[in-house]
Amino acid sequence: MRRGVLAAVAAAVLLTGCTGEGGVSPPAPTASAGASAPSAGASPDVTEASAPSAGASAASAGAPQEPALLVADFGADTVTFVDPAEGPVGSVRVGTAPYGLAVGEDGRAWVATAEGVAVVDTRTRQRLAVVPYGTEGLGEPAHGEYRGGGMGIALSPDGKQVYVGVNVPGGNGTLEVIDTRTLKVTGTADTGRRPFDVDVSRDGRHVYATDHDSFDVTVVDTATLDTRRIEVAPYGTQGGLGSWLKPHYTAVRPSDGRLLLPFEGEKLVVVDPATGRSTVEPMTADTHQHGVTVTADGTLLVVGTGAVDPSDGEGPSLTVRRPDGREKVIPLDGPHEDVAVSADARTAYVTGGFTREGYWDGITVVDLDSGETRRLPAGERPLGIGILSPPR
């Protein structure tokens, strides 16, 4: 009954994507939309605030230091560097409406914007280049959830390729492959509608684009760019574009390479990407779910944004799901979107940007052992988040 009501509500707000926000635009950007991007080797944008080097913190000498963070400011045209002890310590202009980001071991960050994929040197805090998309029909660079351009993004395990999901307004999207040495698009594959998330298999042989508005995951063979689409719709596809019950983000389980997709704090869909078969396991948070990540031991972290119907469901939360299925649900103050976890798996960082109304300009730092939380300012409407390695 509950999900039938939600489907009816969703149908009434057709074309509102996952959440019924109707394409609500974020606050006015800090730089003009469509600003020209420098080519590789051009003078980089200046960091907007002076700050200590990445990885520095205010912790006393000899004390453990939390890793520096980088967030994509969907409400501005920047990425912001964040010290978990102090908050924002500097920003760099990258391009219109940055969404997802990926950080490589070489210290470069790859940021999916409406204009192209920005390349940022996180050590010097400079934008090195913007790689324009090869996909046509994206329209002028714009803000808002439905703008054309990059959404999900991931690096290959060897760091030689970047894979970015590109939203084409009004139609199916694409997955573009960028050579990280030449900074050129070397291939394109078709995906479903609005590729919210992009993930790579541990062996680098396949890429998975989570297609929000077509209820599926596109499996891309990285050698040939051949594709297969696997429907992931545990509640069915009733409501079409207006449905709330769609896939959002995916995690690749380290133990066996299966794909983990949470829905509504009720169902975890486990997909075998080789066969397309899936099973469904129960979840307990009872909340609309977005961002995910997984630790090396297979612990799944899932961001809950709050009840779709306020009269039926729980509020925002972070679910910590152990490999054996046991869950701890940690309440959060206000909606959130994406999550990253520290290397020691003791701390989670959850962005407050959110892709619908109710977002806020910060992150929540979560102690995964105690469940204690603290809020920290961080950029403008931060969505994607990455953890920066200390300088080598």
Task: Write structural notes for this entry.
By secondary structure, this protein is mainly beta. The chain has one helix and 28 strands. The strands form seven sheets. The chain has a four-stranded antiparallel sheet, with no helix packed on it. A four-stranded antiparallel sheet has the order 4-5-6-7, with no helix packed on it. It has a four-stranded antiparallel sheet with strand order 8-9-10-11, with no helix packed on it. A hairpin with a 6-residue loop joins strand 9 (161-167) and strand 10. The radius of gyration is 19 Å and the shape is globular. The protein starts with a helix and ends in a 5-residue tail after the last strand. The model is unreliable at 5-17 and 19-63 (pLDDT under 50).
